Amino acid sequence: MVRKTKEEAGKTRKDIIDAARRVFHECGVSRSSLDKIAKEAGVTRGAVYWHFEDKAALFFAMREDVFAPLIERTDALLFSAELSDPLDAIEASVKEFFRVLEDCSVVREVFEIMISRCEYVDEFSSVQNEIGRPAQTFLAKIERVYQQAVAKGTMRDGLDPLVAARDTWAFTSGMLHLLLSCQKGTDLPQHVPAMISAHIALRRKTAGPA
User: Fold this and answer.
1) 175 near 98, Cβ under 8 Å?
2) Beta bridge partners of 155
3) 188 has pLDDT over 70
């Protein structure tokens, strides 16, 4: 048998990840078997096991397939040298996150799977900490940038960077849940940029009296 090329193996792996996303989204993770995923991908169950140890490994690969490019885009703004005010960087980064969520159906599907189509029990009960790791990483990054805003004097006096970061974390998480649960046709998405701007404005140092 001719050994598959690296490119063919990579394509098969990507096909399995894409199939898993569609099956997870349609059936829910707990009701999605590797047999269903293999059938959707047009491969054998053995091919799935060749690339992924179990369903949890496939789940994380699906998440990483979307998260890696998304984080690269948002981090490019969050740590941009072109934005002199760290608060502008946070605002731009959060807006970019929700812009991608609105424009990319695949990203939206993955977040819907993670939030409303996955029960963290049985084989997934042991991966809860890993599931929440991206949120904790986001919190740490935002706190660091708020600390930079304090150092640059653009943050409102007396506002603790960790408290501000936790508030932005809760705001972003709440907005994400609202957008994923709202019915199609609502006007909430068009108000998101203004809501983010208002959230960040509460952290900005106001000019003193002339």
Assistant:
1) yes
2) 204
3) yes
CATH number at residue 47: 1.10.10.60
> Are residue 22 and residue 106 in the same domain, yes or no?
no
**Section 9-20 average pLDDT:** 93
pLDDT tens, position by position, 51-80? 999 998 999 999 999 999 999 999 999 999
58 dihedral zone (left: phi>0; alpha: psi -120 to 50; beta): alpha
Instruction: Output the pTM of the full model.
Output: 0.88
- Do 48 and 69 belong to one domain? no
User: 190 lies in a domain?
Assistant: yes
Tokens found for residue 81: 């040298």
Q: What sign for the dihedral angle of Cα 180, 181, 186, 192?
A: negative
Domain check: are 72 and 1 in the same one?
no
- Candidates 55, 209, 208; CA nearest to 119 is 55
Dihedral angle computed from the Cα positions of residues 17, 109, 101 and 85, in that order, rounded to the nearest 10 degrees: -60
Task: Tell me whether residue 86 is exposed, middle or buried, using C-beta atoms within 10 angstroms of its C-beta: 0 to 12, 13 to 18, 19 or more.
Answer: buried
